[in-house]
Amino acid sequence: MTPAVRIAAQRRLDRVRRRPAPGRMRRQIGALLGVVLAVVVATSALAAVLAISTVSVLSTDLPDPNALAAISFNEPTIVYDRSGRVELGRFQRERRRVVDYPHVPRLVLDATTTAEDRSFWSNAGVDVPAIISAAAGNAAGANERGASTITQQLVRARLLPDGAVAAGADRYLRKVKEILQALRLNDTYPGEAGKERVITAYLNEIFYGHDAYGIAAAANTYFGITDLSKLTIAQAALLAGLPKSPTILDPYRFAKRDAKGRLVVRPDSPPVVRRDWILHGLRSGARWTTLTDQELTAALAEPVVLAGVPPARIPGGQFTWQVRRQLREILGPSADIETGGYRVITTLDWRAQTIAQKYLAAAAISPNLSNAAQLRLLRQLKVRASERSWIRALRGKDLHNGALVALDYRTGDVLAYVGSAGYARDSLANRKFEPKYDAAGDGARQPGSAFKAILYASAFDTKRLTPGSLLLDVTTEFDHGQRWAPRDADQLERGPVLVRRAIQYSLNIPAIRALQRTGSERVADTAEALGLRFAGGRQRFIQAGLAGALGTVEVRPLDLTAAYGTIANGGVRVPPRMVLEIRGPDGRVVWKAPRPAGTRAISAGAAYLVTDILAGNTIPSQNPIWSAKLELRNTKNGSHRPAAVKTGTANDARDLATYGFLAPPASGGRPAIAVGVWMGNSDHSNPRARKPAISLTAAAPLWRAFVREYTQNWPISTFRRPKGVVKASIDKWSGGKPGPWTRQRISEWFIAGTQPGARREVDQAGLLYSIGCGGWRVDPVKAELGLRSWDDDVASWVARARAGPGVGGRFDSRTAYFWGEGSWGGPLVGSCARPRPHDTKPGKAGGGQGGKDHGHDHGDHGGTQPTPTPPPAPTPAPAP
User: Fold this and answer.
1) DSSP letter at 844?
2) Is the N or the C terminus of the chain less surrounded, counting Cβ atoms within 10 Å?
3) How far apart, in Å, are the Cα atoms of 543 and each of 10, 524, 540?
């Protein structure tokens, strides 16, 4: 280098340090750019000294080139099912999928270098002749000319200081730093291996337009291709041309539907013209690819058919969004879920999820379609013929939505979670059907009679009631802030009933008496221990008073399903969970779910008593009405599968529910499932139907359809009785210890110590009976343990019941026997019948077994036969 050159270089460097006015800076830096490159290629020792000095000044704030090894890309967080194979959704700010070098086809590499940097594999990170030419043109005031290599483009995107690339930063100074950094990067990562690292980072970083970052996302965005090896020559060339100007060259700007409905790009459009230029470049020979004349001709003639921008697919629906909430709790508020590239393994069983989605669509979507459309949908869903009758019966019932949750109550793993009848069915959206709203986890719904399992679990646990306790099914005017006289769903009054039958047949009035005896505070305690969160909080349940017994206070279906699971798990609550494992973008585990740990919510004895009672709902001999809709016989030999289930119908049939569980499997490999189902309308409107559906005709068959298919051919398991539960013989009608009043006996389960005759017995012996007319008479007023103000209504029932079943009262309810019975346990109290002149033989006490005494007051145990009475009126099936 001559002295004149050295002096000129030093003067230029001094001017840069003094930062001259912006008007002159562009020309000066352009000239400096030429000097820097001249220094780079110079060989004299003095040139090397000057080069070091110049580079040192300009490199002071450049990141360490070794940072390339630590570069991480903004990647979506992907959520998978429990197998890790089914993608349930992804959270992303940029559409990107990172690929490593071995998975990039050579065709893609060649197309990219042909388009952006034909000397990539041999240059030093910069194209020296091109930059010198561009610098000379700029110094002379000529038009700017681009000459960025792939290495420079990567440096510009990821390895320059923020100030150099910020809005308003000097473009020419940035260019100098870019060149220097590219040279440094090339020296830090030399040889073939270094080039592979650079081009891999470039292909994952560069923007291809339409929210697609990286070659993998671009292939999917434009052609629907996820495997890069499936790209055609023409497709690879088109993608390679897009980074030059992603917005101007966006193929979707020039695409129209053809006669076949394909989205085709105009052949004369800018992206196709650039594609063809790249194809000709491949014809002349790239590193690995050399097109033949025939291949070139075919590629040039290939139409550009776009896949259409793929919509955001979230197969997991509302479950995926619930997982996102848990990720925020697990990873903390600083974690960037949209760009962190996490891989999340969830608890979801995809088979269970698809079955749940199928039956919810069949039950809530298909009945609101035309007959032909319903048939097509049921065929598409592959709904069995045996399930279609109850689905067709829902036509015209004005039910448009539903939700289902299934979980393993031993681990808390949520196995199926469907928050609406069709997450992706936006075309059907209306006020009664909101596809995206999560009714399972965000919605609060009235559980109706399904809450009675919680109520009675609390009553048993606090030893206020037993399954053998006596409650009165008599319409009563309760004090509820105002006078309130609720009725059973069928508006019948069955008089004295024991708790087991009151639960199984879902009687409302005994449940109200059970809440009064147990106390709202205690029931609220139990509900909270079981994991229930009342809409409006605990106080809302307390304020509901005795109406809370009927499930009028809303809860989340997810919580209530888990509460039923707690009962199934012997009273031990394992909170629901949805995330099993989280891995970072490098594949390392950053979080793993701890081993499930449960907490005691209710006693094992109380849990078993509720379980045993609800299991009777699926046994024909115990409950022929409910079992017709709920019994499971899905084993190879058709054996009965034990299941404990409870239905619930809210006021005006707005919310229809069914909750239940199976016995835990005897061996590993199968989950212990609890399942909850809700049906109704998204806007909480009352169904407009002449005869609305009830839970027994809508939610119950949906529950059974899901469980039946999911557990098909599973081994049979039974509910195991825990220690501390004993069986005792009690009076069939009054509960308590049998005595001289007893006409029939039954066996019942009790928490040890609460059984009749034990030290802490709960049920008073002979509570229902009084001596009268020379024998034992049924005296419901004596059995009323509630407020004295209730006695008048009970006495009114007695007076009406003495005339037989079917006699109405002032609250529009009628006397009735319990299903399958013809007595209320014996003759009712009242005036004694006069003996007939021709009848002087002493009569029998009569009652339940002989069938001659229908329970009227005409019988006289002191010496007369009962007066014949009409046969009992048929009792209609109740609404649950």
Assistant:
1) -
2) N
3) 87, 11, 5
- Residue pair 780/794 in contact (Cβ under 8 Å)? The answer is yes
| Residues pairing with 772 in the sheet | 775
Can you name the residues that pair with 413 across neighbouring β-strands?
A: 577
Q: For 23-71, give the DSSP string.
A: HHHHHHHHHHHHHHHHHHH--SHHHHHHHHHHHHHHTTTPPPGGGGGG-
pLDDT at 775: 93
- For residue range 386-417, list pLDDT tens digits in order: 999 999 999 999 999 999 999 999 999 999 99
Name residue 801's amino acid: A
Q: Order the strands of the 401-408 sheet from edge to edge.
A: 414-418, 401-408, 673-680, 655-662, 643-649
Q: CA 672, CA 689: separation in Å to the nearest integer?
A: 37
Query: Which tokens hold the place of 275?
Result: 């594609």
H-state helical runs in 161-207? 162-165, 171-188, 191-205
The CA angle 738-743-747, to the nearest 5 degrees, is 50
pTM of the model: 0.78
Q: How far is CA 853 from CA 112, 741, 804, in A?
A: 97, 15, 11
Task: Give residue 400's pLDDT.
Answer: 97
What length does the chain have?
880
Note whether 239 and 218 are within 8 A (CB): yes
Q: How far apart are CA 513 and CA 496, in angstroms?
A: 12
β-pair partners for 577: 413
For residue range 428-443, list pLDDT tens digits in order: 999 999 999 999 999 9
Helices (H) and strands (E) in the chain, counts: 28, 27
Asked if residue 550 lies in contact with residue 564, where contact means CB atoms within 8 angstroms, the answer is: no
Determine the Cα–Cα distance for residues 14 and 19; give it in Å rounded to an integer: 9
- Phi then psi for 78, rounded to 5 degrees? -110, 135
Q: Given a cut of 60, is residue 38 above it in pLDDT? A: no
**Do residues 477 and 512 touch, judged by C-beta distance below 8 A?**
no
At residue 33, the pLDDT reads: 53
State the pLDDT confidence band at 333, using cuts at 50, 70 and 90.
Answer: confident
- In angstroms, the Cα distances linking 464 to 41, 455, 468, 758, 796 are 96, 11, 11, 15, 27
- Residue 873 sits at φ, ψ, to 5 deg, of -70, 145
pLDDT at 494: 97
Determine how many CB atoms are found less than 10 A away from the CB of residue 83. Answer: 12
What pLDDT sits at residue 827?
A: 95
Strand segments, DSSP code E, in 229-365 are: 255-257, 263-265, 305-306, 343-346
d(CA 369, CA 384): 18
Contacts of 519 (CB under 8 A, 6+ apart): 462, 464
State which H helix or E strand residue 109 sits in: helix 106-116
How high is the pLDDT of residue 24?
Answer: 40
Q: Which long-range contacts (CB under 8 A, 24 or more apart) does 64-68 make?
A: 65/159, 65/181, 65/184, 65/185, 65/187, 65/188, 65/189, 66/188, 67/158, 67/159, 68/158, 68/159, 68/185, 68/188, 68/189, 68/197, 68/198, 68/201
- The alpha-helical segments, DSSP class H, found in 302-435 are 318-331, 350-360, 371-381, 388-392
Tokens, residue 266: 């105009």
Show the CA angle centred on residue 450, arms to residues 812 and 681, nearest 5°. 85
pLDDT over 80 at 601, yes or no: yes
In degrees rounded to 5, what are phi and psi of residue 237?
A: -65, -40
Residues 475, 493 contacting (CB under 8 angstroms): yes
More confident residue, 742 or 313: 742
CA 459 to mean position of chain CA atoms: 32
The H or E element spanning position 309 is none
The CB density around residue 447, as the number of other CB atoms within 10 Å, is 31
